[in-house]
Amino acid sequence: MSDKRIEDEHLLIDLSLGRCDPEVSAAARKRLAEDKQFSERHRNIENSLAALRLAPEYEPPEGLVEATMDHIRRHRQTQALIERQHPAPRSFARTFSLRELGALAAAAVLLAAVFIPSLIESHRRTLIGQCAANLGQVGYALQAYASANDGLLPGVEREEPWLPAAGRQAVSNSAGIFKLVTQGNAPPTWFQCPAVGGESFVVQAGMTDFPAARYIDFSYHHSIGANRLRLDDPALRGMQEHMAILADESPVFRGGRFHPEHLTARASENHGGRGHNVLYLDRHVAWKEQPDVGVQGDNIFLAGGIREYRGTERPTRADDSFLLPAYSPGNARP
Q1: Which of 87, 112, 220, 281 could pair covalently with 240 via S-S, beta carbons 3.0-4.6 A apart?
Q2: How far apart are the two ends of the chain, measured CA to CA in Å?
Q3: DSSP output for 206-249
């Protein structure tokens, strides 16, 4: 195998595991779009990692490693004693017996079966923690913004639909929370989930929203028009710890489109459908495996249980958490 191919495979593995910095990730994704052979290797690596993630996850029995290594040591001692009593011809210097190699291979397979799933789970939990940290940082940025704006959280002042349709533009709800970026409360990287990956960008004068969907992985509470939350809203007194305002991207409106087939989805797809991090109005972040984690079990991804969406729906009451698409394409200026 050539050095170039080895280098490419290392790069693709890092990309799949989310360990590339933004510049390297951007260059790799551009090459994926242009180089079919490079893209095919990436697909093979993704399939291999997907198979590993499906492996059963269980904790190794206590003392398994020590017992396995002790067995190998005793076997080698026995083999050494036999060879001292019956020395092999000088022309043949054996390092391992066939039985020894079999034992080592079996031990390697056993250890891999036990520890590879544990490593994958550890990596997954690390990404969840990093995602929660980003949400927590955004929570403090929202508090800073509200403190400077009479308690109001950022939003989009214009009354516009939040889903595009034929012959109709839409305003992206993310344009509201983008004010945290333009006013210096938060850098763009805080709005990305490490489990998804993403790219950074340079904020330029006149920007009113994230440049594209790949720059934001979190869904923000409906904040279009006059419907804007306040940190000190009397109607939410005592409910702040249950009022969700930001979370991993909604599975119902992923990619700025309504997906009716996902109305019963249990979790965001950011973390493989296993759960989602949620930022609440009191600024604490919690990992949840269900969508019904709002006030009194409210589904945070739906508006008051509504099942059909055209992009004009609003929260049905003051304590109705309704997280819109992370980003809607075809935006009108806010």
Answers
A1: 281
A2: 53
A3: T--S-SSGGG--EEEB--BTT---BTT-GGGTTTGGG-EEEEEP
Place of tokens 């805080």: 190
Interstrand relation of 285-288 and 218-220 (parallel, antiparallel or unpaired): unpaired
Give the integer Cα–Cα distance in Å for 251 and 257.
10
Per-residue pLDDT tens, the chain, 334 aa: give them: 567 778 888 788 877 777 777 788 788 888 888 888 888 887 777 766 555 554 445 455 556 556 666 666 776 676 676 666 656 555 444 555 556 666 666 666 666 666 667 777 888 899 999 999 999 999 999 999 999 999 999 999 888 899 988 777 888 999 999 999 999 999 999 999 999 987 788 999 999 999 999 999 999 999 999 878 888 889 999 999 999 999 999 999 988 889 999 999 999 999 999 999 999 999 999 999 999 999 999 999 999 989 999 999 999 999 999 999 999 876 544 4
Burial profile 37-62: b = 16 or more Cβ within 10 angstroms, e = fewer: ebeebbeebeeeeeeeeeeeeeeeee
Radius of gyration of the chain, Cα coordinates, nearest whole angstrom: 26
DSSP letter for each residue of 125-165: HHHHHHHHHHHHHHHHHHHHHHHTTTTBPP-B-S---SS-B
State the Cα–Cα distance between residues 235 and 246, nearest whole angstrom: 19
From the number of C-beta atoms within 10 Å of its C-beta (0-12, 13-18, 19+), residue 279 rates as: buried
Total residue length of the chain: 334
Cβ contact 225:156 at 8 Å: yes
309 Cβ neighbours under 8 A, 6+ residues apart: 163, 252, 253, 258, 303
Enter the pTM of the model: 0.67
